[in-house]
Amino acid sequence: EVQLVESGGGLVQAGGSLRLSCAASGFTFDDYAIGWFRQAPGKEREGVSCISSSDGSTYYADSVKGRFTISSDNAKNTVYLQMNSLKPEDTAVYYCAVDIGGWGNLLSYEYDYWGQGTQVTVSS
Description:
Elements: E1 3-7, E2 10-13, E3 18-25, E4 32-39, E5 46-52, E6 58-60, E7 68-73, E8 78-83, E9 92-100, E10 113-114, E11 118-123
Parallel strand pairs: 2-11
Antiparallel strand pairs: 1-3, 3-8, 4-5, 4-9, 5-6, 7-8, 9-10, 9-11
């Protein structure tokens, strides 16, 4: 059974940092992508960043480029999202998801399995 468990969310002041973790288990596919998405109240879910298992390629939404960094630790089957210079508009529930066989994109409908989400709140 594929499982994705997010952690690391919390409350932080604007300008602060958080590191989210996504622990993945239950799949051994050669090619997949792990993505981070977020959804704020009353807004649609949006892609934030993703990383490809095949070559480590990374992708970022324009709104987080230069502030967020995605990385993976294959030995721990964990993907991280380092979030710096946080803004109040980054407040959302953050989800990680896996796209089995995917090369990496920020299209939520391409992703097959999702975690339960972790709340990130940035105060002004």
